Amino acid sequence: MATARVLSLGFSSSSSFSASLILPRQWCRLYSAASRTSMSLKAVIIGLPNVGKSTLFNDVGLGNKFLSHILEVDSILQVVRCFEDDDIVHVNGKVDPKSDIDVINLELVFSNLDQIEKRLDKLKKSKAKDSQSKVKEEAEKSSLESIQEALMDGKPARSVPLTDLEKDSIHQLCLLTMEPVIYVANVAETDLAEPSSNPHVR
């Protein structure tokens, strides 16, 4: 049984759950899957009630200590509000899923920039004891500098082309912007039949 760990961003409270999943047969036919394999899914749900008001991953927001518990995930699932409801007030006063996505992605970029800056400082002071360690350190330094440049332009780490050696050299950092992202539109029940009619989804 395969295992996937998912970080889910966008709910109003935090929790976690585990579930056993198997894809429907029609999905397997749609993607020409050779076989159906059951998998175990562990999701860490992070509530973000203050999106747009504070920095999520520093001492003001969720905290670096908390962030350390969610770094080792296989993907990120962003649940984005796409429904109007006067009884549920949005922190920014209006429903704007693109803005919410941009804010969360920017916070992830800031978090990774902080990680990379600290790691590069350590690498500058480090002296490899053997040639193999030196090659790995050089690969890591080169990778981090390339990723740092991309992040400064607002691009995620996954947008940077890296060799297998470079990917392996930075794996221990668990950069969240390296992970694939799935966006889920949180729509009203009345939109479930025709979600494309929702202007926030289109």
UniProtKB/TrEMBL annotation:
GO terms for cellular component: cytoplasm. Residues 106-133 form a coiled coil. One of its GO terms (molecular function) is ATP hydrolysis activity. InterPro entries: P-loop_NTPase, TGS-like_dom_sf. Gene3D superfamilies: P-loop containing nucleotide triphosphate hydrolases, TGS-like domain. Keywords: ATP-binding, Coiled coil, Nucleotide-binding. This is OBG-type G domain-containing protein. The lineage of its organism: Eukaryota, Viridiplantae, Streptophyta, Embryophyta, Tracheophyta.
